């Protein structure tokens, strides 16, 4: 199974945000946990209905999305 097959987008689930298939756990939520220092192992322990491969699929999904996105740097304005 391709990792990306683990991620679905359905307008009737979580307002169309990408989620791990069979759950209501969003890619954004998983990436947020990882960015705050959570390990894949601790996430799986806290969410036993997902696997480490689901977490890797979230990372791969984000990578694929970013490949197709252009970014424009907006410097912080002086406060």
Task: Describe this structure as you would to a colleague.
The chain is globular and about 45 Å long. It has three helices and two strands; from the N terminus they run ββααα. With 79 residues, the protein is mostly helical. The chain has helices at 27-35, 40-46, 52-67, and strands spanning 7-8, 19-20. The model has no long low-confidence stretch (mean pLDDT 92).
Q: Brief description of this entry?
A:
The protein is mostly helical. It is 41% helix and 5% strand. It has helices at residues 27-35, 40-46, 52-67; strands spanning 7-8, 19-20.
List the helices and strands and how they pair.
Elements: E1 7-8, E2 19-20, H1 27-35, H2 40-46, H3 52-67
Please identify the oligomeric state: single chain
SSE pattern? EEHHH
The amount of helix comes to: 40-55%
Secondary-structure-based class equals mainly alpha
End-to-end CA span? 50 Å
Give the overall pLDDT as a whole number.
92
Strand order of the largest sheet: 1-2
Estimate the global geometry from the Cα principal axes.
globular
Return residue spans where pLDDT drops below 50 for at least 5 consecutive residues. none
Any idea what the radius of gyration is?
14 Å
Largest beta-sheet characterization: 2 strands, antiparallel
Determine the number of helices (DSSP H or I, runs of at least 4 residues): 3
The number of E-state strands comes to: 2
| Percent range for β-strand residues | 5-15%
Based on the model shown, name its key terms.
5% strand; two-stranded antiparallel ribbon; mainly alpha; 2 strands; 3 helices; 79 residues
């Amino acid at each position: 199974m391709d990792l990306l097959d683990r991620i679905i987008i359905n307008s009737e689930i979580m307002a169309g945000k990408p989620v791990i298939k069979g759950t209501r756990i969003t890619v954004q939520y998983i990436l947020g946990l990882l960015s705050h220092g959570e390990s894949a192992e601790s996430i799986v322990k806290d969410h036993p209905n997902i696997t480490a491969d689901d977490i890797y699929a979230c990372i791969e999904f984000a990578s694929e999305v970013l490949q197709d996105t252009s970014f424009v740097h907006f410097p912080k304005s002086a406060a």
